[in-house]
Amino acid sequence: MGKKIEIKNNIRKLRFFANEMTQQELAEKAGASRQTIIAIEAGKYSPSLELAFKIADAFGVNINEVFDYEVKGN
Amino acid sequence: MSYQEKRTITNMITMALVLGAYCTYAFGKYQAGTGAQDDLKFWATTMLIFIGIGIAAGIVIQIVFHVLLSVTIAVKEKVRDVNCDDKEIERSIAVEMVEDERDKLIDQKSMMVGFFIAGVGFVTGLISLVLNYSPMVMLNIMFISFSAGSILEGFVQLYFYRRGIAHG
Question: Which end of chain B lies in a sparser environment, N or C, as judged by fewer CB atoms within 10 Å?
């Protein structure tokens, strides 16, 4: 059995430190819909590499400061 | 509820209405003896007419849906800020209707389910012929499974929008 990777994110924290940036503002900066940002923040959707970079760019940080992963299983 | 979910529900209702209308019409004709089992031309014509009705109804309902949604958003914006201008309202409408990679992924995955149902219907239709049922039965199985596949596709889309979706 292959190892399962769970993607985690710090979007809520980063939005707070970006003057409480709204999900709508982040969505517009990243070129995604607000629903997608909500889903990513809630861990219900893992974005493509392209969108992940755009989100990191919207906060002006490195991608690994936004997304992290946890290995699950054996 | 997001724009995409509302649009999916609108599509599903349209498809269900068209399928319901077809079943009522076809069954009524069959009961009356108009749609005889061997009269494939009658069934083909009926199905083509209902496909046309489905496409036309889908277009009209989508236009009405977009107009109503735009009006709703405009009213909400005006209530929120009386001084907001048309450009702001247009921007809010555009923002609400944005489609991105997640929507495309959901479309692709749910479409697979729709194709699967249609495929099962096709095979079942062929099996019905092998089992000596009339070609009318085969045609109806195929038509209904294609329509049911579209409706089920909508349910799968709603499921993915609610529960989330993963790549792979």
Answer: C
Both tokens of A39, joined, read 């889903």
Q: How large is the C-alpha radius of gyration of chain B?
A: 21
Report the C-alpha gap between B57 and B10 in whole angstroms: 11
Cβ(A33)–Cβ(B161) below 8 Å: no
The CA distance from A52 to the nearest CA of chain B, in Å, is 12
pLDDT, tens digit, 9 for 90 and up, residues B106-126: 999 999 999 999 999 999 999
A46 in contact with B, Cβ within 8 Å: yes
What is A18-44 written as a DSSP string?
TTS--HHHHHHHHTS-HHHHHHHHTTS
| A28 vs B: CB within 8 A | yes
**Any CB–CB contact under 8 A between A19 and chain B?**
no
pLDDT band at A74 (very low <50, low <70, confident <90, very high): low
What is the ipTM for the molecules in this complex? 0.82
pTM (2 d.p.):
0.82
Q: What is the pLDDT of residues B64-109, one digit of tens each?
A: 988 998 888 888 888 887 777 788 888 878 877 888 899 999 999 9
CA-based torsion, B154, B156, B159, B165: positive or negative: negative
A34 interaction partners in chain B (CB closer than 8 Å): 95, 98
Picking from B32, B52, B34, the residue whose alpha carbon sits closest to that of residue B43 is B34
